[in-house]
Amino acid sequence: MARTANILSRVYRNLRRHEIDTNSLIDQEIFDELVLGQDHIISEAFPDKIVKVTLIDGEGTYDLTTDPIESSSGSGEAPPIKINIASVKATKLPAGWSGGNLNDDFSSIIYMPKGFSIITNADFVRILNSNPGLTGRPNIATIIDSKLKIYPVPSEEEEGEQIELYTYLSSSAGIIDDLNEPEVSNMFDKALENYATAQFLSGDERTQFMNDFLADLKRLKPIQNRKHHNLSRPPLTGFL
């Protein structure tokens, strides 16, 4: 990726200017530091991202991650690289879901709301206990232990349907390399360069690059968050 390659070349250039022997360095060491710098930026700026949950017949629990979301149990697949969703601010449902369940009017069952709602853990458990064993189109969800729990449990008819979650991130997916660009906006590229460079220096040189990184982060953070002020909905209850 051109963006990653450009940051990498500038880090090497900075180190050579400070008389660091880069012959002993490998690209992966710098990539690892870029990931740590990106996680620092995300923890301060909370960028947003859309993640998709693909429903599985008989599965009511899904991991919250920027990796492709699969069933948290029964799939036999390796766990995701990172659980890195800070909160869910809104959901986009499959076409035709807004009017309730086609097969069952779950809104007529005790406590069950119309449509689809993310609710508190306590309300979720209360509804689940009052209406056990329901299957079909989900009407409610809650978030606990970095997992999305939905109810009623999807049936074969809902298999493959996708719910889109509009989320704030807590960290990156953990990959920056030749094939994967940084997840943060390219306006943070100089900050990433400064952070990675600092990790291979010491003393005043290291301090200067870290100060430059923190100054970039302080300057750019309001730009990243500005879009959340007037047009965004407040975070929903019932998440992490």
Percent range for β-strand residues: 15-25%
What low-confidence regions span 5 or more consecutive residues with pLDDT below 50? 69-75, 229-233
**Count of all domains:** 2
The strand count comes to 7
- Please, how many helices? 5
Radius of gyration: 22 Å
Biggest sheet details: 4 strands, mixed
First-last Cα distance: 34 Å
Question: What do the pLDDT scores average to?
Answer: 83
Binned, the helix content reads 25-40%
How do you describe this structure in short?
The chain is α+β, with helices and mostly antiparallel strands and 240 residues long. It has helices spanning 2-17, 27-45, 121-130, 189-198, 203-226; strands at residues 48-54, 61-63, 85-92, 117-118, 140-144, 147-151, 162-169.
Written overview of the protein:
The chain has helices at residues 2-17, 27-45, 121-130, 189-198, 203-226; strands spanning 48-54, 61-63, 85-92, 117-118, 140-144, 147-151, 162-169. With 240 residues, it is an alpha+beta fold. It has two domains: 2-46 and 172-226, no CATH class; 48-169, no CATH class. The strands form two sheets. Strands 2-6-5-4 form a four-stranded mixed sheet, with helices on one face. A three-stranded antiparallel sheet has the order 1-7-3, with no helix packed on it. β4, α3 (121-130) and β5 (140-144) form a beta-alpha-beta unit. α4 (189-198) packs antiparallel against α5. The longest helix is centred in the C-terminal third of the chain and has 24 residues, at 203-226. Residues 69-75 and 229-233 have low confidence and may be disordered.
